[in-house]
Amino acid sequence: MITRRDLLLSVPASVAGARLLHAQQPTFRVGAQNVPVYVTVTDANKRLVPGLEQGDFEIYDEKTKAPITIFDNQIQPVTVAVMLDSSGSMTMNLELLKQAAEQFVIRLLPEDRGRIGYFNDKIAFLSDFSNDRDMLIASIKDMQFGNPTRLFDSVLFSLDELKNVEGRKVILEFTDGADTASRSGLGEVLRRAREEEVMIYGIGLQSVMMGMRTKPDSALRKMAEETGGGYFELKDTDDLGPTFTRVAQELHSQYLLGFEPQTDGKVHKIDVRVTRPGLVARGRRSYQAPKS
């Protein structure tokens, strides 16, 4: 029998069996009367923790404990926009980035849908949302270079593309530098991600330009932390493949919790906790309450 842990730790050669299991699972839908919170749980060694139950979690809405009205520990299908920085600083590393993105696509499950895009001074999508892994991998090869870097705009373009998508929505954003040319800012990104309930993952690569080491835009971490996604900052391109693989593993091992929102029309802070000692829970930090 294939277990949840088997599925999470499977290598590409064994994905077919895991895919069959996933295809038999129903899609879970969250009603408008609940706030969905997708939660990643790790232990002290950063390993993903499966097998938890509803009683292992607590949710606090503005420091007041909220009853958990929805709980599901099965794999939830995801629609993900993968946006890759192809600005001039990535010239020497673009092929490695393409290979890493392929590792992520390979690990998408049959009910998942992905879309590949890139950004520099331009923002372009190389595919439609699809579960055709071969097509998505082929599209990665069409990335083009450019300058400068429109990080925030690329997130907003992705939000536009996800706006009419039903179900769980994720943006996976990669960059090796700071935003230098966006027409929008971090505040607008966070507002829309909160209101449209989109999780953002960030992968940042430190790079060397003219003998100096540069860091990815600090806003990338902020976007990930506020929306419940993970943030990974890399010093070595050798870590690109394993990190893109880790993101896929996390997306297929998260818990779905839900609670009834307040109805005051305000932005509310959320704190998700796991009660078992030694474990850490990560989820979105806020939601936009409806107004009664």
TrEMBL record:
Annotated CDD domains: vWFA
Domain of life: Bacteria
PROSITE patterns in the cross-refs: VWFA
Record domain VWFA: where: 79-247
Protein name: VWFA-related Acidobacterial domain protein
